[in-house]
Write a structure and sequence with these properties.
- The longest helix has 26 residues.
- By secondary structure, this protein is mainly α.
- The chain has a two-stranded parallel sheet with strand order 1-2.
- The protein starts with 16 loop residues before the first strand and ends with a helix.
- α4 packs across α10 and α6 runs antiparallel to α18.
- 66% of the residues lie in helices and 4% in strands.
- It is built from 19 helices and six strands.
- The N terminus is likely disordered.
Length: 437
Amino acid sequence: MSTATGSDQQGYFPRWTLKTSGVIMPEERLSWGQTVVSGLQHCVAMSGATIIAPLLMGFDPNVAVLFSGVGTLIFFVIVAGRVPSYLGSSFAFIAVVIAATGYAGQGPNPNLSVALGGIVGAGVLYGVIALIVMWSGVGWVERLMPPAVTGAVVAAIGLNLAPVAVKAVSGGAFDTWVGLATVLIIGVVAVAAPGLWRRLPIIAGAIGGYLLYLLFANGLGFGKPIDFAQLAAAPWLGLPNFTTPTFQADAIFLIAPVAVILVAENLGHIKAVGAMTGRSLDAYLGRALFADSLATIVAACGGGTGVTTYAENIGVMAATKVYSTLLFAFAAAVSIVLGFSPKFGALILSIPGAVIGGLSIVLFGLIAAMAGRIWVENKVDFANPANLITIAVALTAGAGDLTLKFGAFTIGGIGTATFGAIILYQILTSPLARRAG
């Protein structure tokens, strides 16, 4: 396996050396032609979730894609080009944004600016945590959020979002069948498709579901036809619909705790990339957290979603063994260009709700299922009552959307599950609890 050379450390950024076969490490690069193709693959890998998340919250997908590129470049600069990651729309914000804005699930969110203020608050809290990690190290984060807790929080997010997905495919029998057909396409592609397509089941599901809906609704009249007027009228190039945040205390209190979830996500992703490359990236964790927090603040100040490092792109790296950070700089540039295409945004907005619902069933389910992977890979002991009770309570609080109110301060199901899991685990593993046992 390749290792960093001494010259790699002479400047702030690596001196990317050319390597065209085998494992490509972060400080190495492919030929420029291969870099373009591989970078586009990362764009495709992130696009499904980065586009779906803003649609579920009523955000402008053009703006979200644009700021995913901007955020990735921010991350690239702050980690000195030494940690390969793409920053896309975070699903952890969906439930709290819907709760804070009362979003009905279709069209633009009328209270978008309020949600943006809350996301800025989450980014600020995230930044404070990042600065503490940079000053004191990562050990306390690992103690506060061990795999049992992290997995419980991840599972709670997926379960909390499940009703949103089901509602999207429950508008009528036709919507339900289109949504389920979309799910089936995703599954078949993930299992049986050849080559690159097997890595892109979400995109394939979106295209397949869209074409099915078009055939049976526009062609055969089984459902409400897709209206292409907005797509036809949209120009190829133009400024995105930027929105500035409005700061309301209740929305900030509801949304800001998502920062804790983002810390857990980023920690897991950095550990995963470190394991794949065979080198510890813990020295860059504080920078990575701070970069993610800054990218989230910048995105929310312009109308974008909060962002996080993307497991989808980590999956691409695991499959290709190409970890060159230059791929992500190129992918970010492509995303910024797409953000300035109203035609691209209009195409995304034309996706029927039933298809989005089908995609959401899979995506939200995958979030919940990811918890199982965290528990298995870290050998979490389910015979340990502290682990078992912590996980059980978090899953129920998240799935049931247990909401706690303290005067004007409200914590939704994801926040209750997150803080509940952290606090309960610390209580159950404290010396006092062990002595009582």
